[in-house]
């Protein structure tokens, strides 16, 4: 049941509003945004979106945060780069798109350090450049997609958001250990993935300890279904994956 409970969290957190990343499914989009907290596979997805011209403008958002070192390591392994130490998430993904796919984003945001200022900085840059953003396609890591949606619903309530999580990787029990049958490119180590998923449910729960209006006010209200709360509580009682705590280096 542990894998089933974890996959319930994946299904909830890795929000996708359409069945496929195609023009027929997505419709007309002003701007598509890839967030640097994604695994490397998010870059592959974004490259296809650019090649298929799914939006009028393409933007990558991400400075330095809790996942930057993991992304740098993935780029070293996949691309053989040995000069990534000082690069932001946006710079890493933009270079990846250029060298692997010969496509580029239109805008890069290099200063954000967490989901909250990902949203604020993205909206500020779009406004500064005069880019319409009535309809926005968001691509973020599986664990953080629903929270990113809630951040935009709070700060850009007039915008229509289309969510498409970079991946929806299920967890399985393999040889008695949690693992992945077919991990996407740059997939997190399973213990980190589990910790990130477990960390999202307290953040999304709209109570005094959460990030919603009843708590810290970082995101719009999210309704966490009872079955998701039950799955989370069952995992917590079983001692599975301590929730990822907010890293204070990137909280500002």
TrEMBL record:
Gene3D superfamilies: HUPs, YdcF like domain. GO terms for cellular component: plasma membrane. PANTHER family: DUF218 DOMAIN-CONTAINING PROTEIN, INNER MEMBRANE PROTEIN, PROBABLE PERMEASE. This is Uncharacterized SAM-binding protein YcdF (DUF218 family).
């Amino acid at each position: 049941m542990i894998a089933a409970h974890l996959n319930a969290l994946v299904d909830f957190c890795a929000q996708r509003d359409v069945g496929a990343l195609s023009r027929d499914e997505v419709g007309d989009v002003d701007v598509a945004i890839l967030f640097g907290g994604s695994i490397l596979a998010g870059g592959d997805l974004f490259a296809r979106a650019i090649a298929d011209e799914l939006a009028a403008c393409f933007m990558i958002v991400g400075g330095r945060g809790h996942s930057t070192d993991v992304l740098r390591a993935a780029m070293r392994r996949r691309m053989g780069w040995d000069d990534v130490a000082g690069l932001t998430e946006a710079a890493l993904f933009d270079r990846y798109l250029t060298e692997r796919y010969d496509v580029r984003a239109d805008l890069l945001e290099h200063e954000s350090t967490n989901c909250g200022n990902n949203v604020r900085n993205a909206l500020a840059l779009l406004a500064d450049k005069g880019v319409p953003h009535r309809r926005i396609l968001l691509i973020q890591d599986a664990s953080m997609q629903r929270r990113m949606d809630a951040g935009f619903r709070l700060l850009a309530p007039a915008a229509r958001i289309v969510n498409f999580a970079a991946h929806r990787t299920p967890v399985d029990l393999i040889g008695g250990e949690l693992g992945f049958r077919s991990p996407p490119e740059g997939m997190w180590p399973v213990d980190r993935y589990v910790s990130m998923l477990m960390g999202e449910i307290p953040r999304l729960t709209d109570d005094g300890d959460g990030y919603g209006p009843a708590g810290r006010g970082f995101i719009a209200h999210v309704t966490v279904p009872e079955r998701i709360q039950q799955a989370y509580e069952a995992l917590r009682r079983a001692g599975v994956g301590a929730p990822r705590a907010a890293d204070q280096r990137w909280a500002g």
